[in-house]
Write a structure and sequence with these properties.
This protein has 362 residues and is of the alpha/beta class. It has eleven helices and 16 strands.
């Protein structure tokens, strides 16, 4: 094994450098994981542009699939792993003592290890992001074993993308048999939400996007959407009203990150329905809302963050049971050296290059 490895490091807004980091010594309670694939999402675009504050420098990449190459004696018992295991890394357990941890919401713990975002790479062991050759496995990380039968492009989607769709649409959105569901935004999270809603028994799944989303909207039908809507050609609220007989959507999952789309989501939900907000618009972006409609309609507004480990395992079981080729959403794979170009492409900033789902392969 080499004595150093590469990491795509956000050093300041708009600047990513491929830096060399020493391979850390592995203590009894630690481990080292060789990264197989890492997913790129819209949050990475916002990180690049400085729309979300981070403790720079940071190695980006929070959707991580890898294989354990070194494992301390205590770490093997902590995680139930052995060297050679293929795993998904998703967040951490947290400190166990703060208010968030005590109420069972460790993913909000401010002291937890955070991959690809809020844990800096400035101090050893440095490797806390998936856009790298290796990543460090601390005691508090959540590692989930993944079958070698799953293609890498499918396995890497389980922990964040597919698990988020399941948790946001079904667990937190409450989608159930016979529901009308609208998904705003046909990116990776929208496709995952469409899949989850269809598997939950939704009677009608709508998914909306803009003109440049034509390829994503076409794929959305494979993932479970009954009807796609190009918002540049059709009025979303009118389509939902006409095709539900005026009932409107029981659940709206908005993963667009667009203030305009969020306003439309309010128009499309029924009285006592639920709007799930999963798209980030930026720390300083204000979205005007007609709050009286929420009040008069007793509409539930549910913010969602990231899926928990239970949702990850449930999503894995569902993908394995259905055999559905979720890897079909992966349209581009980039090397580490092209991480910044990849992120800008995901953000729609490069002409004629707009991935449905992009991965980094070391």
């Amino acid at each position: 094994m080499s004595q150093s490895c590469r990491g795509a490091t956000l050093v300041q807004p708009e600047k990513i450098e491929i830096r060399e980091y020493p391979i850390p010594d592995v203590p009894p309670n630690g481990g080292l994981v060789a990264v197989e694939r890492a997913g790129v999402c819209g949050t990475d675009v916002k990180y690049l542009h400085g729309k979300i504050e981070l403790p720079l420098p940071v190695i980006l990449g929070h959707e991580i699939l890898g294989r354990v190459v070194k494992l301390g004696r205590e770490a093997a018992a902590i995680h139930g792993l052995q060297e050679g295991d293929r795993i998904i890394l998703k967040g951490a357990l947290g400190c166990g003592r703060c208010a968030d941890c005590r109420r069972g919401a460790a993913r909000f713990c401010r002291k937890r290890t955070n991959y690809g975002g809020r844990t800096t790479c400035a101090k050893p062991p440095h490797l806390f992001g998936g856009f790298a050759d290796y990543i460090y496995l601390p005691p508090d990380a959540l590692a989930t074993k993944v079958s070698d039968r799953l293609p890498a492009e499918a396995a890497v989607l389980i922990g964040a993308v597919m698990a988020n769709g399941f948790q946001w649409a079904v667990r937190q959105g409450g989608v159930k048999i016979g529901d009308f569901v609208l998904i705003q935004g046909p990116g990776q999270q929208g496709l995952a939400s469409a899949f989850a809603a269809r598997q939950a028994g939704a009677a009608r799944v709508f998914i909306s996007g803009i003109g440049r989303d034509a390829e994503r909207l076409a794929l959305a039908e494979r993932f479970g959407a009954h009807r796609t809507i190009n918002v540049e050609k059709e009025n979303v609220a009118e389509v939902v009203r006409n095709e539900t007989g005026g009932a409107m959507a029981d659940v709206v999952v908005d993963v667009s990150g667009s203030p305009k789309a969020i306003q439309t989501s309010v128009e499309c939900v029924r009285r006592q329905g639920t709007i799930v907000l999963g798209g980030l618009s930026g720390d300083s972006t204000a979205t005007p809302m007609l709050l009286d409609k929420l009040v008069w309609g007793e509409i539930r507004l549910q913010g969602v963050f990231t899926a928990d480990n239970g949702a990850t395992e449930a999503a894995m079981r569902l993908v394995e049971a259905t055999g559905f080729p979720v890897e079909e959403m992966v349209s581009h794979v980039f090397p580490i050296e092209e991480t910044e170009r990849c992120i800008r492409a995901v953000g729609g900033e490069i002409a004629n290059l707009y991935p449905i789902k992009a991965l980094i392969k070391p």
